[in-house]
Design a protein that fits this description.
34% of the residues lie in helices and 29% in strands. The chain is an alpha+beta fold and 202 residues long.
Amino acid sequence: MTEPEPCSFPGCREPSATLLVYRSLCREHFLIVCSAQLDASVQLLLERPFRGTSSGLVRQLATECLSQASALAGGTQTLSNLERARLLDIVLWASDLSRHVRRGPRKPASFPVHLHSEEPGQTWQEDTITRIVSRDGAALECGHQVRIGETLRVIRRDTGQQTRARVLFRSDIQSGRQEIGIELLDCENFWAMDWEAAESTG
């Protein structure tokens, strides 16, 4: 069996867990470097918001961060609660940037929702509660196995409002349950929150 490449971060001797911008990185240094790169991308958009090259670079980095973070979360290695939370934050942050918007606030919030999957051969429905919400997404627990990229229908049980959502993140937690991160696809302000106020106080 081939030994993994060492992490390329200066002074680190841990084995590589993933690649980011052609660099081999262990899990801890992926989290550090990815966060720094995403933060730099925000600054790039603020300084040159209308230049196509800037937007293209930001979208490319956001896509890579999202893909690698999702792969690490769904891998075979056990994640700590802190690592899982940091990976989920990167996924939601990268999703924001892929739409060329700056990082939005995340707020702990418990909204009762109904999830409905119509994947061929494995239709299911489930009631659950959000843990964290953002302007265009949410984190919540799910008792069914989902895959990255799968589309779910999300229905708020308190208002009946519904939308489609794409699974961006999945990580096993316990007893067959998963924590998943979703991106809302076709609904404005699904959570009916004052995001301008949340941004100024968050």
